[in-house]
């Protein structure tokens, strides 16, 4: 059963069509990756799905309901949660406290709601603390539990962003370039994290520039180039697809996962 349907999604910025009539379905419990060369429109597509941008035409349907045009926090409350960027991690707090706060973000409109936290939210605190430890554990972050976020290396900060998003109890987790800027070890760890998330039955939609890690974790891959979908299929199908090879020609061989 598909949890998300992207239907004829188009986004124009002035005369530029960043996303051009893109359609695909995301099946519940699967990992679907959107890949494409630089400037292909991946980030724009991602923002359209998380409702940070409104489409020029087309729509996104989540569990049958059109969510395009809703405020991002309302979409998040329905279960579509994007990872937190490094800039939204609270740097002066520990990894653990950041994940506890992530639970509250899942219930409130934004950080303000957290600071003005209600009695009900405080009552949930014990449950959140227990859950935060569980998340850190299965994401392999327990050993940095008490580190201040500002002391964490880049790869860990990105992982912490995923942990915070998990605390908001997503049904569909959106990962924006989770492997960007990671070295080989960090990428391996992040791949393991995504596998762990998938095993918990959470659907994952990720947008990524680099094909190599994507090949390892995706059930399906959608390829976009110059805003349009040029291919869709399993990793094996994508690897052998002529249009994909063509789109990536001139790029480093590493990018197509060879
Ligand atoms: N807010 C905006 N205003 C105008 N043009 C934009 C805006 N956002 C993106 N674009 C343009 O839309 C096109 C697609 O950009 P987008 O960032 O979605 O690509 P991308 O595939 O994510 O690229 P990368 O892999 O480099 O991050 C680019 O030509 C970009 O310059």
TrEMBL record:
InterPro entries: AAA+_ATPase, ABC_AA/LPS_Transport, ABC_transporter-like_ATP-bd, BCA_ABC_TP_C, P-loop_NTPase. Keywords: ATP-binding, Nucleotide-binding, Transport. GO terms for molecular function: ATP binding; ATP hydrolysis activity; L-isoleucine transmembrane transporter activity; L-phenylalanine transmembrane transporter activity; L-valine transmembrane transporter activity. Residues 4-251 form the ABC transporter domain. One of its GO terms (cellular component) is plasma membrane. It comes from the Bacteria. SMART domains: AAA. One of its GO terms (biological process) is D-alanine transmembrane transport. The keyword ATP-binding applies. This is ABC transporter ATP-binding protein. The lineage of its organism: Bacteria, Pseudomonadati, Pseudomonadota, Alphaproteobacteria, Hyphomicrobiales.
């Amino acid at each position: 059963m598909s949890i998300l349907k992207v239907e004829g999604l188009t986004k124009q910025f002035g005369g530029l069509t960043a996303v051009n009539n893109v359609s695909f379905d995301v099946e519940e419990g699967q990992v679907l990756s959107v890949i494409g060369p630089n400037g292909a429109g991946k980030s724009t597509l991602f923002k359209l799905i998380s409702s940070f941008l409104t489409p020029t035409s087309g729509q996104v349907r989540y569990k049958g309901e059109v969510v395009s045009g809703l405020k991002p926090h309302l979409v998040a409350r329905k279960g579509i949660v994007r990872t937190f960027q490094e800039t939204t991690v609270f740097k002066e707090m520990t990894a653990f406290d950041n994940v506890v706060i992530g639970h509250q973000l899942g219930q409130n409109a934004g950080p303000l709601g957290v600071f003005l936290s209600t009695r009900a939210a405080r009552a949930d605190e014990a449950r959140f603390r227990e859950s935060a430890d569980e998340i850190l554990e299965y994401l392999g972050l327990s050993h940095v539990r008490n580190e201040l976020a500002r002391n964490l290396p880049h790869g860990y900060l990105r992982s912490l962003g995923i942990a915070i998003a998990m605390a908001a109890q997503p049904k569909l987790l959106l990962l924006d370039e989770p492997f960007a800027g990671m070295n080989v070890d960090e990428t391996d760890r992040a791949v393991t994290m995504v596998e762990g998330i998938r095993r918990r039955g959470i659907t994952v939609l990720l947008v990524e520039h680099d094909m190599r890690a994507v090949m390892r974790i995706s059930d399906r891959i959608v390829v976009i180039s110059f805003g349009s979908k040029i291919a869709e299929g399993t990793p094996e199908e994508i690897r052998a697809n002529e249009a994909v090879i063509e789109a990536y020609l001139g790029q480093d061989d590493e990018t197509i996962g060879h």
